[in-house]
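Task: complex structure prediction.
Instruction: return structure tokens for all chains below.
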Amino acid sequence: MSWNKVAVVGAGLIKFGELFEQSYEQMAAGAFDAALANVDKGLDRRSIDAAIVATQRGTLWGQEGIGGNTVPSALGLSGIPCTRVENACPTGSDAFRIGAMVVASGVHDVVLVIGVEKMRDKSAQEGLLARAASGHPLYNRGETAPVLFAPFATRHMHEFGTTPEMLASVAVKNHHNGCLDPYAHFQNEITVDQVLASVPVCSPLRLLDCCPQTDGAAAIILTTAERAHEFTDQPIFVAGFGVATDHPYLHEKSTFVGLPATTAAAERAYAMAGVGPADIDMAEVHDCFTITEILDIEDLGFVEKGKGGPASLAGETALDGRIPINPSGGLLAKGHPIGATGVAQLTECWWQLREEAGERQVAIRSGYALQHNVGGRGSGVAVVNILTRHRT
Amino acid sequence: MTAPTITTPVALLGVGAAAPSLRLAAKDVAGAWGSGGGRGTVALCDADEDTLTLAWQAAVRALAAAGVDVGDLSGLWWGTTRPPFAEGPSHAFLATALGLGPGATGLLCAGSPHAGMDALLAAWDALAAGHARIALVVASDALIPGVGTAGESTTGAGAAAYVLGALDPAVSGGNGSGTPARLVARATRVMAVVDRYRGDAEAATGDVYDGRLFREEVFVPLLAAVGRAAGPGEQGGAPVQWAMADPDGKLAPAVAKRLGGTLVSAPLQAALGDTGSAAALLGAIQGCAGIETPGVLGMIAYGGGRATAVTLEVARPVPGTAEAVAAVGGGRPVSYVQAIRARGQLEPMSDPIPMGVPPAGAAFVRGNVEMLAFEGAKCRICGVISTPPSIHHRCTGCGGGDLDVVALARTGRVQTFVVNQTMPPPFQAPLPMVVVDLDDGARIMVQGSPADADDLAIDDMVQLSLRLYATERGIPVYGYKAFRVAPSPGGASDEARASSGARGATDQGRNGAGRSGR
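Output:
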């Protein structure tokens, strides 16, 4: 018995990429317009009762004091209640979870969840790389973003015999899917050999094992299950969600072959939705690096621990595989504008469950889709959302 | 006035030495500037080494050799021509990193290459006065010669550390006859001359004297005078062996010839160059290693218009001498370009982006002490050690709130690692980042050594050493790096045990609870 108190009635995003020509506000407005346009029966923008903004790092585009007040004005909604949510890489997915709880609380009926992130207004050295030296002033010196995940690759290879080819197969698959997604940052096929020949970034990870720095925005409109049919005949329901934290620093990890925050968040989401991994038709998971997707599919219960590499290499996670993973292209090909990432993943789940994903449509059998992000220093927080097309 | 010759002896209980990791051939310097000749090599610091990290390394080794626990030290006496902070917490940083704790006494001597000797004399006085019982003396230098100056092919770097003990029954068996060696006499003379000079805000040291003039009229007479006054030549028996500073490779032989006896510091000079403040003490270590015991050794330091000679009676091999001589051997040859880059004299045009927490910030104040002292927070309930203490007010294992701050072990094994090839300045790639399971059960993540980037593997045994992480906003920032050592199932080396500090060093219990999921 799923939760199903809240429905998604509209979702949309702008094409991800290096959007130097667009401001933060323009990206937000584009995503909101796209979501409105995708509401089957139409929705007057003045029907939005409140908004949750997901932006992880205002500092990356130079606005240190960004809050929830920036976005409503840009959307023509000035005056509505609006709050900014920040929760590391799951910022967008947690904003969605909070938006769903706001609707379920009965305080606001129609809530906009909008993720917006400027990753490229500053140079890499001034932006992400420099910020990666945050945390303890000395203990984590030298810890750039790939350092947060590459140690798991080293250990996973050591314990399970996972190979660079298996890691590369994740990037190859997601780039293929990205070619079928008009919103993806990258629209080019790559080969395993190209991945293995790309420059080392943070050994054992190479350039094509890493997601790009991408600007983007995505928006979702939520309302109560009861009112959903005012806006669409094909609502998608929030079946369940889970959030979990873990010790934030790498040296505090209990394991380097899995992410306990993911496992715990998934357990909570599955329990809330009343389903298990076998009921999931497709999943959008956090593939900031190739190794992350391998960890994810194990921690989410889609494959046995240690078997993520062989499963990826064998095509089990392809569009036509046993459990299609990241049909949108994932973070690796679609891009990772942090606050927008989770909202865009949920938009993909929404399209897939409505069977509107075109060339990248996967087979929908049970009617459940799963979305997942993990991040925050050394994967200190994970969020899992489960959507369904079933009312009950 | 004529300074008296001091003759109150103190005991030498053990020694240690350190040399930086790079070696530059004098002929490469000559080649870079189109001049001929150049003999020998000089030692110089890699980008993550400086006079403080060399001092730390030598001190850790001396304590291990002497078998002295850092908790029994009366204080730290450190001499270096140019401390890392011209004005600032140099002594406090080194004392904290050595585990002396908040009660550390002693002093920092600086300002000329006589500084190492000044530290030795001050420690000697404190011991003789009864104000100290066991003193750690460290003499170190890593001077930066001006680009294109004669000093480039002579200026070296290195550190020597002595553990000295008062001649009281508890420390050295009464009259010191049971100790390996004793410092028995000393003499100092001064002459107000300008020879080597560096002004405020100048990065490099320059020589401003006429070599032949000063050798004949200043250096040789002055050094010979103190050598005679300290009187090692009057001890009778075996001929005196001399160890002394030598800025140009010609002075020491001339002085030794004038005094009579053998010069024992020449090989070290040829390998490392002029190690400045460390030269006399390092040379004496080399002398001790080769001396027939019992024997007499004279060491002479010069700098800033002051010369001091010390007479050392060596009864039996001084602990640590052989290890010290081995420790200053080797080194990685580098090109002239690599050398000036390592010395910070070849820098990219762009300004490095300020990284991390400003050294003036409160987080840095909290974090710096616990990093230098290398502390963890150990749970009284389950035994798990959470690191670092400033971010753990409760146990990461059981959530308990009853934690003791302990000094962490300095050796462990690699749990996992990466080699980061994309580093913003001031970092330099490739930089390994290593998650280490320490021998006391704590787990940390620290930078590794670039030299290990190709060879590092899971389960390798690593040892942690103090290094210069970066110079940020003009301020040196220090922390520990993991260095791969030969796998050794026997556990921590003596050096690591000594460097673990007094607190917690004896508590090597494994962390059982809370990490069963590893």
